[in-house]
Amino acid sequence: MQNNNLKRLEERKQALELEINRLQTDIDSSIESVKDEVSQNLDPREIIKKYPLRSLGASLIIGMMLARSGKKNNAYGTGMGSMLSLELKRMITQRGVSLLGDFVDSKISSKRENKD
User: Fold this and answer.
1) For the chain, what are the domain ranges?
2) Residue-by-residue DSSP string for the chain
């Protein structure tokens, strides 16, 4: 009798271990899919493609805010922070102008395609 109970317990233990392994595999695949989806949704290129005007507006607003804060605080001093600030402002401005140019080009080309 005791041997039979021990055998059933051992079988139950193996079945539970298999179930745990299956659940762990399912959880791992779910986590991977969520991780991939989140990283794709937070990719700056995807955000810019999805919301070009909002991205442009945000970059321009941030650039203007940085420009104002730089003028108030240091008036283009000679320190390392002001040099970095100026470079950051220049890069943001270039990126904003580039995005605007790309957006306008895509709109113009799509209108030309619609005419043809």
Assistant:
1) 1-42, 52-115
2) -HHHHHHHHHHHHHHHHHHHHHHHHHHHHHHHHHHHHHHHHT-HHHHHHH-HHHHHHHHHHHHHHHHHHHHHHTSS-SSHHHHHHHHHHHHHHHHHHHHHHHHHHHHHHHHHHHH-
